[in-house]
Automatic annotation (TrEMBL):
SMART domains for the chain: PKS_ER
Superkingdom, natural source: Bacteria
InterPro entries the record matches: ADH-like_N, ER, GroES-like_sf, NAD(P)-bd_dom_sf, YIM1/Zinc_Alcohol_DH_Fams
Protein name: NAD(P)-dependent alcohol dehydrogenase
Length: 326
């Protein structure tokens, strides 16, 4: 009997309901690949955007009319069950976590990944559900605050969207740096965000965090809810506005900010960094976790069979931290 795996197919761009469960032949690992039995995988806002084919200018890379790869999910954690004959970093029985990247397919029972990709040994003390989300909000926030924004101890940092996957990680990361952290969220999440390390929490429904003269050294807009022109008056003289959500409308501000004045609008795709650099960042993240200075925040855990429901929940925009399927 031929071995199979279960996965989720995206036949066309659209709402969560277009996600379709499929049964596929079990892949055999190539010479430098490992076959992983997935124990948990992330369901993220970015996954939803890819499912919808947004932003539109990304479709030449994702697929013009439908996703080129056609499978859902990127972040995962699981167990290596087979390896190629040239694999040296991993062996069957190893617990690992990582990122499927542009090959997708992490919302599944099994996957083959290259050993030199974004793949790391999972610490024994870290659960599979926590490890599965490290390559989304935690790694992205680490990259933007440490590498791109170069935030430092004593900086005044504003996190727009402090309760989500990126925001809950960003508040912890900035606080661990020694920054003075202000974060926005709804009133119901205020105490939660404060518990993560924010010294000031702003209810975005009643107060504008982007007050002229606020003099933030870094503004990290985790959701793309503002713009550089709106954030600029609230930045310090050499302040940096960071946003992981790139749209065509944001490009002129990014380009112009590099030419005029000292305030900067910065964007970069963390996922396009070389795998060895991303693995080094993940090592730093694991050190902070081991030091109890950072912890992934889990909102909901769904069965893999309920991926449609998980996507629908993420799409409400009200999740607190991360969502996984197992």
């Amino acid at each position: 009997m031929t071995a199979t795996l279960t996965a989720w197919h995206i036949p066309r761009y659209g709402r969560p309901e277009i996600l379709t469960p499929v049964t596929l032949p079990m892949p055999q690992p190539g010479p430098t690949e490992v076959l992983i039995r997935i124990h948990a995988s992330a369901v993220t806002r970015a996954d939803g955007m890819m499912r919808k084919g947004e932003p539109l200018f990304a479709r030449p890379f994702l697929g013009l009319r439908r996703p080129r790869n056609g499978l859902s999910g990127t972040g995962l954690s699981g167990e290596v069950i087979a390896v190629g004959d040239k694999v040296s970093r991993f062996a069957p029985g190893d617990m690992v976590f990582g990122e499927a990247g542009m090959r997708f397919g992490a919302n599944a029972s099994h996957i083959c990944l290259d050993e030199d990709g974004v793949l790391m040994p999972k610490p024994e003390a870290l659960s599979h559900q926590d490890a599965a989300v490290l390559c989304d909000g935690v790694l992205t926030s680490w990259y933007f605050l440490h590498t791109l924004g170069q935030a430092q101890s004593g900086d005044r940092v504003l996190i727009l969207g402090g309760a989500g996957s990126l925001g809950s990680a960003a508040v912890q990361i900035a606080a661990a740096m020694g920054a003075e952290v202000t974060a926005t969220c709804s009133a119901r999440n205020a105490s939660f965000v404060a518990s993560l390390g924010a010294t000031r929490v702003i209810d975005y429904t009643t107060e504008d965090a982007l007050q002229r003269g606020a003099a933030y050294d870094v503004i990290f807009d985790t959701l793309g809810v503002a713009s550089f022109s709106a954030a600029r008056p609230a930045l310090a003289e050499a302040g940096r506005y960071l946003c992981p959500v790139l749209t065509l409308g944001r490009l002129p501000a990014i380009l112009l900010s590099s030419l005029v004045g000292r305030k900067r609008a910065l964007f970069a795709a963390a996922g396009l960094e070389k795998p060895q650099r991303l693995r080094a960042m993940l090592s730093g993240i694991l050190t902070r976790i081991d030091q109890n200075r950072l912890a992934p925040v889990m909102d909901r855990i769904y069965p893999l069979s309920d991926l449609v429901e998980a996507h629908a929940y993420v799409e409400t925009g009200h999740k607190r931290g991360n969502v996984v399927v197992m």
